[in-house]
Amino acid sequence: MDLNSNIMIPEYWTHKEVEMVTNASSYKELRTVAFTVIGRMPRPIVQVSGPISTGGAGSLEENLKRFARAVSLLKREGRHVFNQIPFEPSIQKIKGIEEPNVDYAMGILEQFYLPIFETKVIEALYFLPDWQSSVGARWEREQAGRLGISVIDFNI
Fold first, then answer.
1. Residue 29: how many CB atoms within 10 A of its CB?
2. 80-82: strand order across its sheet
């Protein structure tokens, strides 16, 4: 916790990165922060995949609760988790600006996640139950197969 403010600083982040994400106006800006955070994380790194904005528990809020629980469980197992939850408020804001009238905003997948996956620094994707109900999770599973990233079905 940053004692100079009431903002919780996510693990591996600095106050400056929280500010950058909060003020970001493009997926590219978010990706820059993600690469910085990932750069200081111990290896191997894993990530949770599953419904966020489509499918799953039926709402963004409920899906993010499931994500948070999965991240917490993986951390308790000693995994180093790239946690995308801190990016989500800005992702939603940018989607509304860059892709306001589409059924599914592919920009976040193609401009944020794909470049991260292509570095192969994410060693494994832990897929939440009902991942098939998510456009993004189905896409991530396809990319994992293409790039040789391990896929683990995570039944929480």
1. 16
2. 80-82, 45-49, 122-127, 150-153
Quickly list DSSP for 40-65: TSPSSEEEEES-SSSSTTSSHHHHHH
The angle subtended at Cα 16 by Cα 11 and Cα 17, nearest 5°, is 55
Total count of domains within the chain: 1
Domain holding 33, by residue range, is 15-153
Confidence of residue 156 (pLDDT cuts 50, 70, 90): confident
In the chain, at which residue ranges do the beta strands (DSSP E only) sit?
Answer: 45-49, 80-82, 122-127, 150-153
- CA dist 112 and 142 (Å) reads 16
State if pTM tops 0.85: yes
> 38: which 2 tokens?
């990932």
β pairing state of 122-127 and 80-82: unpaired
Distance CA 151, CA 125 (A): 5
Predicted confidence at residue 4, as pLDDT, reads 43
Examine residue 137 and state whether it is found in any structural domain, yes or no.
Answer: yes
